[in-house]
């Protein structure tokens, strides 16, 4: 029986990967593999532009969202190399605009605390992102906003992922490099690694993937491009647009830098091409599946190391991730770490399957360093295994009914180390897609179950006016439309307008169907997100505030206070 090479095995599963993609509704998908230090495989599915039926390739630009975080962390390492910063330097010394009276200032919050998400601050993503990929706050408000976010845990006690925190990272970089984020990233990271297809802003490029959200019938609905750039809020955590080819360069350089840190047995023999062939033949006779690439068909590469002196602070674990496992599940600086076998949760697949699969039974003990990224219209995933100089990168141009990039990344790792997919990934994708499509029906059912029937609102005009957060940099305008119905406008924007429906007493809701929400490029959120509870400072008196639980950690919600001058 002929021994199949890893490349052939990856070609064998093209149909499986394409079925995963189709079940998720993802219009286009691109992935590449580095194994044993060389690029051995790249593949492309579907369309980067559905209307024009244009396929993606290794140069197609995708927004990679939170994959930006590890890149920003790498730039911080350059500051450490230059002696401009230490990992322990209090962030408040560099950014004196931050409050000196906060718990974070008193605990000498440092750059590692920020990069590994152990600040203790609540998530509060709704404050920066709403419909149509709109950035709801300017970059100039980022530091004040981070300061005012509520504490959900004491500093350094829990891993609480926080996108707002990476604004601090960006400002530290800009302050100490004395230039803007786009310039410093290009100079310090992208150019040294010849990443010529990598940007921190939207560029006019014919080979750029369009952005899509996926409807319940699995059709692709084009949405506006993500607005985050080097000049907006979330610049250091989400703004990078890049290509598969450039990401393979980046992660190949990570692997080159990590290689000397991988423990090896003294006197281990070098496996030549001829010996590898003999071992593969022996494995076939003994019934083993080959897991090494075919040297003759591998693309020979020579990745330079990262342009930093020490990669370990970036990729080491700095805080435990809240996973139920005795094996390592931790977070580094823009990187998750999982000792296999273990569960990888790139995005939201965990919430829409009965049980998240366990990866890596065939390569127990190995460490996988990984991360995901997503925004409306885009999803990305990367896994690195330093022991075998392996990286898998997956990009797709949608926020699908499930995360096809996640499933594809794990499927490819199965093929590399077990010779075949170890899970029914199309079935997982189908189950996740079905459950995702029901999310807004579940929201409506939960709201209905908690509703108190038979109550009446006040005269609708009693709720009209503009309500502000304590910083007065975020507003919710309530108005009556021409038909006498209540409407809300987030940040008083016409394109952030929703109809309010009476729920009970002085509470109103604004949830829509799944398809209506994703057509507006909205994430699907929990039931409490869609409730506005109006209140009076003195019971029974005039309505003068509004309570909104936009973050699960804020059990009592956030209070928005009426500006009396805005009431007719």
TrEMBL record:
It comes from Dothistroma septosporum (strain NZE10 / CBS 128990). InterPro entries: AmpC-like, Beta-lactam-related, Beta-lactam/transpept-like, Peptidase_S12_Pab87-rel_C. Gene3D superfamilies: 2.40.128.600, DD-peptidase/beta-lactamase superfamily (3.40.710.10). Residues 453-558 form the Peptidase S12 Pab87-related C-terminal domain. This is Beta-lactamase-related domain-containing protein. It holds the Pfam family Beta-lactamase. Belongs to the peptidase S12 family. Residues 14-400 form the Beta-lactamase-related domain.
